[in-house]
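Example record

The entry below shows one chain as it appears in the dataset: sequence first, then structure tokens.
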Amino acid sequence: MKTTALLLSCMFAMSAAAKDVMLMNRIGPSTSELYIANADGTGERKMFPGAGFDYHASYSGDGKWIVFTSERAGFGQADIYRARADGGGLERLTDDPALDDQATFSPDGTQVAFVSTRGTTHRANIWILDLRTKRVRELTGTPEIQGDLMKPDAFLRPAWSPDGKWIAFTSDRNTEWKGHGNGNGWEHVQELSVYLVHPDGTGLRRLTGAGICSGSPKWSPDGKQIVFYEIPVESTWDARVFQLAARATSQIVSIDVASGKRTDVTSGPGLKVEPQFLPDGRVAYATKSGREQGIAYTSGTAKLPGDMRSPSWSPDGKQVIYERVNYTPRPQNQLLYSWDPAYEYRYTDVFPSFSRDGTLLVTDKDVDSSVVTMNADGSSRKVVFQAVQGAAFAPSWSPDGRHIAFGYGGFLQGRRTKGARIMVVDRDGTNPQELTPDMPNAGFPSWSANGKEIVYRSFGTGEMGLRIYNLETKASRVLTTEADNLPYWSPDGTQILFTRKLEENFDIYTVRPDGTDLKRLTSFPANDAHAVWSGDGKFVMWTSGEYGFRDEAALYDNSFQPYGSIWIMNADGSGKRQLTESHWEDSMPCFASGEHMLLPK
């Protein structure tokens, strides 16, 4: 991402003096704030009076300090901070473009173990920070511990034993990339096991078995037991809210470290996560099951309802710190952290594209998934097609900027059975036309360079693949018959870029409009999808999971693929490189030159 040519996108002329902008979508909360309360829920207060973006907090062994993750230095750059329990003494502990997260103090308070994607592998590994020297060292990235880099290979949620001799963590090392048992393929609940290792990297030991998700280990005060949650890997995601919810059931389990004897701590339905032993022997945990959200205890203190996330109790069990998140839509063009200081990364809604005159077109997912146009700076926003039944997905400009094509109907998981069709409207939203009344579920259209044809995805019983609609003859022809989606016609009209699903994996392909010269551009076992062209057709940008998970998947909310980062490659599939490295799901990039992006600083 070092050349001006790489950023020639959306068919804009370049301005040598202007700073280029990458618009992108990020599925994650718009705000995240830390709160502290008594264990019974009384006395709640914000930890910091101002607005920050903080999460994943935990107490020091003496209860005087709190370590947490913050993006206050830039939305997307996650670093480790600490502060006194009263909110004073705020100090930034790490400053790295990679993701730093999930920190925990050593029992004596002199070190912090945390998860980071820094290093040569870009995977989530556990690192240790010496608070006196500020030096960091990698714990799990050694050949003795690291798994197969062709597999997920994440190391997550470290927890120090009370005597400081062991660190427990979860890992999907040496497991397989796999989709859900329901065949959706893209979303995941990864297989995880609990491991132990000495802080010097020796003595690696697996504590839980294979074939299940065992997450978020915490030690008992006497160091003899570890508590964690278990969830079957075949559990499904709630298609209505994209959240592991009512249909997923997990249980809290404790295990004796010496003997391996297991004890079921909870029973019954509900998604129960992030448990912790309290000094009196009870177990506290978070619940995430639809309406049954909040903090619960195995006995005694009543359950505290609410949208609380990542709770952590003080060593004496009297207080709990947690985060409250908000998913109010981010403002268009909100400045995000840029992993290349030469360019600006900014937020946009989904499926962004620009007309030749610089008008931005998106699907506004927060307004009934309707089609919206606006100026590049977000002004003059207009809903040109109001979705009433279903969603108006993936709008596409005609080459002359006079028309907009989009899919309209049901697209997400089970909604596909409701049907969808390709629609075209004039630029101002007038003169709506339905192009594919006989197709069971048609969507994701893209115009040819000459404006005479539209490629789209067809889905249904006995119907699968890409089709090309001729605007003159009003007929469609078959381009592919595989599980293909998200087609994009190249700017010069010679190739069509698309995503193909093979078994449970997605990869990026190109094919000529006549069906010849099929090329596979990605082949990593993790998912690669949502690919788009740069404006000059020399580059392809897409979302990839190649570097694996950054957190336990069950802890995310409202996210299809929590491990997705934006990547870029040459049009022939060479030169692959990563553009984003956040905790969240990043996707749908669109580059624009600065002279057309009249953005507020």
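Notes for this example: The first strand starts at residue 21 and ends at 27. The chain has no helices and 48 strands.
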